[in-house]
Write a structure and sequence with these properties.
- This protein has about 325 residues and is mainly α.
- About 70% of the residues lie in helices and about 5% in strands.
- It is built from 15 helices and 3 strands.
- The chain has a 3-stranded mixed β-sheet with strand order 1-3-2, with helices on both faces.
- Strand 2 and strand 3 form a beta hairpin.
- Helix 4 runs parallel beside helix 14.
- It is elongated and about 75 Å long.
- The two termini are about 20 Å apart.
């Protein structure tokens, strides 16, 4: 049991500190943001699985009731292989720490979901106030998938919820050409189809709850960046790189899209990336990266089940 806890700790620390720092310096996630998002999710899943399996193993060693439930279907030889009879003091402290971390993580996720629901409610109420008066018989259109707002500033965004809505201002309709508008709408639909809102909620909750953990801090920053790049790729495949870049400039020109300010730096990077597209990863490279990343979360499970499998073999 002690060896398993030590191995789980090593894997968790490795995935939480040096690996994300190295990944943020890599250039390939920018070329293929979908694969980059998958790699970040696999790293987070690895750390969470390490903590969860260590918590279960430690609780089984400290509490007899947990041990009886966890190892109830296992033969006595499997239970003996884990040596749960004598739990060191540091294992008990680690179990309590992991239990507190699990409770805190659950609280942060719940808080983020509640706050997101509250923000969507306020936004929908604000939209109902800003929505133009519709002719008689068309009042239900405000609850449809597309809503046009009277506003001189060009803007477009996707609001998740039930039902989800795509909002476009009249300023965007006047400023953008038909092809540019199609690129903007395709970009927003890309967010909706990939359910990027859930990924953003998860990364925000983890970064808020554990701001000093490098993995969660980088995961939040990179997720907000890569989801935009992935949606840009979705739009550029349909409408072309140049059209998507021009649409992005026209839509954000009043915000200073090409400004060097930190708040607008991502917009400038997105425009440069679209105007000078870099070669994407090859299919084999993408498949190999995705497969390797998918195998990483299996390490905690192999560590935990290793003693039991060796006995059964």
């Amino acid at each position: 049991m002690t060896v398993c806890l030590l191995l789980l700790s090593v894997v968790a620390v490795t995935a939480a500190v040096p690996v994300p720092r190295a990944l943020t310096r890599a250039e390939w996630p920018e070329r293929d943001p979908v694969v980059g998002l998958w790699v970040w999710q696999c790293l987070v899943a690895t750390v969470l699985l390490c903590c969860l399996t260590a918590l279960v193993l430690g609780a089984a060693a400290v509490f007899h009731t947990v041990r009886d439930h966890v190892f109830a279907p296992a033969p006595p030889a499997v239970t003996a292989a884990y040596d749960l009879s004598a739990a060191p003091a540091w294992a008990s402290a680690l179990t309590l720490l992991l239990a507190a971390g699990a409770a805190w993580t659950t609280a942060m996720l719940g808080r983020e979901l509640v706050e997101a629901r509250r923000r969507r409610g306020l936004a929908r109420a604000h939209l109902r106030e800003r929505a133009p008066d519709l002719p008689a018989g068309l009042g239900d259109a405000v609850r449809g998938p597309l809503l046009v707002l009277e506003d001189e500033y060009p803007d477009a965004w996707w609001m998740p919820g039930n039902p989800p809505q795509l909002i476009v201002t009249t300023g965007a309709l006047h400023r953008l050409t038909d092809h540019q508008l199609d690129a903007v709408l395709t970009h927003e639909r890309g967010h909706a189809r990939a359910h990027h809102d859930w990924l953003l909620h998860l990364s925000t909750a983890l970064a808020t709850g554990f701001p000093r953990v490098p993995l969660f801090a980088h995961f939040c920053d990179q997720t907000h960046r890569l989801v935009e790049l992935a949606a840009d790729d979705t739009a550029s495949r349909r409408c072309g790189h140049l059209t998507t870049a021009l649409a992005l400039i026209e839509l954000n020109q009043h915000r200073g899209v090409l400004s060097c300010a930190s708040s607008h730096r991502l917009l400038g990077e997105r425009v440069d990336r679209l105007l000078e597209p870099s070669p994407r990863l090859g299919r084999r490279h993408r498949a190999l990266t995705a497969v390797v990343a998918s195998l990483v979360p299996l390490l905690p499970l192999l560590i935990v089940f290793g003693p039991g499998l060796s006995v059964l073999a």
